[in-house]
Design a protein that fits this description.
138 residues, 4-stranded antiparallel sheet, 17% helix, 34% strand
């Protein structure tokens, strides 16, 4: 009986999966280090004036949504919905909205106001420095 052999496609596929797993493991262990990694460095999002009072702005590239519930009070949250991981798409009627499945979150605390999201949006530290928003993901 002949020995089974793997096709070139099978070998390449398995190698890609192994490499992806090793890369993901490397990234996750580095990110979980001592908490002093890149995530602890403030990110400049630009002018605080771009965030309307009673509303907010989604910074897609940075994965952050910043709100201003009352004048001069800024809040920052992850822009990743806690339901399916979609990016929230905007802030309307004092709610952070995810159009993927209809979840809505409060602009002052990120709390779920309408599901199916199971948990609030994670909060980040936000400060205004020289008129610009500085957000720290930690």
């Amino acid at each position: 009986m002949p020995e089974p052999t793997a096709s070139r496609r099978t070998v390449l596929c398995c190698a890609a999966v192994a490499l992806a797993g090793a890369t993901a493991a490397g990234c996750s262990s580095a990110a979980q280090g001592d908490g002093k990694g890149a995530s602890a460095v403030p990110v400049d999002l630009g002018a605080a004036a771009d965030v309307p009072v009673g509303g907010g702005k989604v910074y897609r590239e940075q994965g952050v949504v910043v709100t201003q519930p009352t004048a001069g009070e800024y809040k920052a949250f992850s822009a990743k919905c806690t339901h399916a991981g979609c990016l929230v798409n905007g802030v309307v009627k004092e709610q952070i909205q995810c159009l993927c499945h209809g979840s809505r979150f409060g602009i002052s605390d990120g709390a779920v106001q309408d599901g199916p999201a199971p948990a609030p949006l994670p909060a980040y530290r936000v400060a205004v420095q020289n008129g610009n928003l500085q957000v720290t993901k930690s």
